[in-house]
């Protein structure tokens, strides 16, 4: 099975070169590449909006743009980043590429639906882009009513229609994963031999199936209310804006786990590979994913602490929110224990994984602080919250995404990337990230509210630090674009398994053939059996 | 057998695996549908609690006769749908086609009745919006906003349900072609099974909508 692609001829990349062979492909690996291109585009777009926001905040006065323009900038930053980058990133790119490979299947269960999901994603993206180019939205990515339904003078309906459609692309992907994981595993691949990457995607898909329809109908009601003047969320007509917040967060809190669970899966793969160890407490890590998925649906009310919900509801949501911290902490402890037992090599993916653990821990601990009712009332809607969710979403999800891209790049392309540059960019990302977001904790604690375009002079130093950090971070993010593209043409050939990693995806050629495996794989060992792999290679 | 072998997609090992995959996929899709309708049911229950009298009054204005008739029609269509699936499973080509046609007819009758009901709402100014006009017909000087909220939800829920019916009928119509060509055999009939699940789901939603909108709160 270790024969090289060159000897066998065709792989998924060389199987047809026409545009049509890509745009009509039903191969999950090609669809993953298509997704990667679209998602990179939206990441850059969202990044530009972020940069506009940070530039405005360089000085205390609102001097770079109008207040209204500023509102549009941070809203479009949030909308693009969350719905078009963070939510699809790991599932649609790495998940699409790897789920069938890791379970030993020839493809996902529904290849046509998979292709459709990419088209739906792009259609949604074009509609949302349309809204942006016509002037954008100013409601914040949370679309709170009645501002969004009545007062906002921006393209709310068009944006929301885009997001409604986008929901279907998530649902298609989640449905495909669940069915594939249930029905198409290779012989011998029992549930508890599955890589933790698969467990992470399974849990994420469950959230997608249960949550996405809720946000879809909520946004549809919002659009209907704004265009037909219904009163479902309008207090003047007997409706209730708090209902909107409940429905919105019933999806949007679990959505943060849609972003983070796949990333945790990536981290488990990378850490075991570079510590050359079985993941410590495999079962705990697997069940923790499911526990997070379930508990994640019970805590949405911590976004409504100051909305006027009853004190009792606040207390219950406070306690439940703290509970979510438990399975997350279980994972962190298990990764640490895995590394503790192993001999660590510091390859680029491992640098990202280590960065993930540090940043996710800070994000999680500040989450527990926010879950404490009294503290949240103090820092609600300040930069403290902004820093918290960026530590989780950017520090967690994006570190996982970049780590995963580097880890599987040799598998996807058959090429190795230049080591010096990749390590440099990982370092810049880590430093830039902390420089950007750590000052925001302080700012928030001192009382700087979020979503304001100007601020008192005494906050300037910290804001300048943050903007400087964002610049470093931006450089770190852009670099892979260049050296990874460079590696496509000039990178060294990777071989089938450059890291000596364990897992079905490493047993096929790099890049894999269209049918994924030359022979139907049969699984005989536990996941991450690095000790026996080591023994064999001695 | 050669015909059904050609129905095997390249990435599955055998027809069994393929059938299990498509039915699991369909069940999962229905879970998302439950969550989709669930939001509206949830909103209905909350607002009903908040505007109890107004909701009771407003539900009186719905035509219970037409609602009951439609319930019967829909249950009938579930039966013909089940028979269509069964005929496909045992490979009775003509019966499959006929039961599909019957199901389409019953579904269309349902939608026709819905049109009659909706137009009555327009006539009486019971459609939410600028022209909405509510005189509590049964006594209580109930609040206009509460009644309007009832009709908001009435149109949202029955409208969403009707859209599902339209989609269902369209798929039924498309499936008549392979059914006529005898594509469904005892070995391979996945599309019919999935469509059957969908149709029954849409019927069940109505079974909840009818009492919630038409019946409860009647004296
Ligand atoms: C694991 C991944 C997590 C992600 C991706 C995440 C993400 C977010 C996001 C996006 C917000 C901001 C919402 C807004 O726009 O207002 C937020 C706020 C919040 N998060 Fe997290 N979070 C995570 C974990 C946690 C945990 C574990 C807890 C509790 C233990 C928590 C507690 C909170 C609270 C209480 C708020 C509300 C703060 C406020 O609005 O005043 N989060 N989080
Ligand atoms: Cu939350």
Provide the fold topology.
The complex is a heterodimer of chains A (538) and B (219).
Chain A (H helix, E strand, L loop, with lengths): L4 H4 L10 H5 L4 H29 L10 H37 L7 H24 L12 H5 L4 H28 L12 H33 L12 H35 L6 H14 L15 H31 L6 H24 L1 H7 L3 H31 L5 H28 L13 H31 L39 H8 L1
Chain B lengths: L1 H4 L9 H36 L1 H9 L3 H26 L3 H31 L20 H37 L9 H26 L4
Helix pairs in contact in B: 2-3, 2-6, 2-7, 3-6, 4-5, 4-7, 5-6, 6-7
Protoporphyrin IX containing FE (HEM) binds next to α9, α11, α12 and α14 of chain A.
Question: Can you describe what's shown?
Answer:
The complex is a heterodimer of chains A (538) and B (219). Chain A is an all-alpha fold and 538 residues long. Chain A contains 17 helices and no strands. In chain A, helix 5 runs antiparallel to helix 7, helix 8 packs antiparallel against helix 9 (241-275) and helix 10 (282-295) runs antiparallel to helix 11 (311-341). Chain A is globular, with a radius of gyration of 23 Å. The two termini of chain A are 19 Å apart. By secondary structure, chain B is mostly helical. Helices cover 77% and strands 0% of the residues of chain B. Chain B contains seven helices and no strands. Chain B has helices at residues 2-5, 15-50, 52-60, 64-89, 93-123, 144-180, 190-215. Bound molecules: protoporphyrin IX containing FE and copper (II) ion. Protoporphyrin IX containing FE (HEM) is lined by residues 142, 256, 259-260, 302-303, 321-322, 324-325, 328, 364, 367-368, 370-371, 376, 380, 385, 388-389, 392-393 of chain A. Protoporphyrin IX containing FE binds next to helix 9, helix 11, helix 12 and helix 14 of chain A.
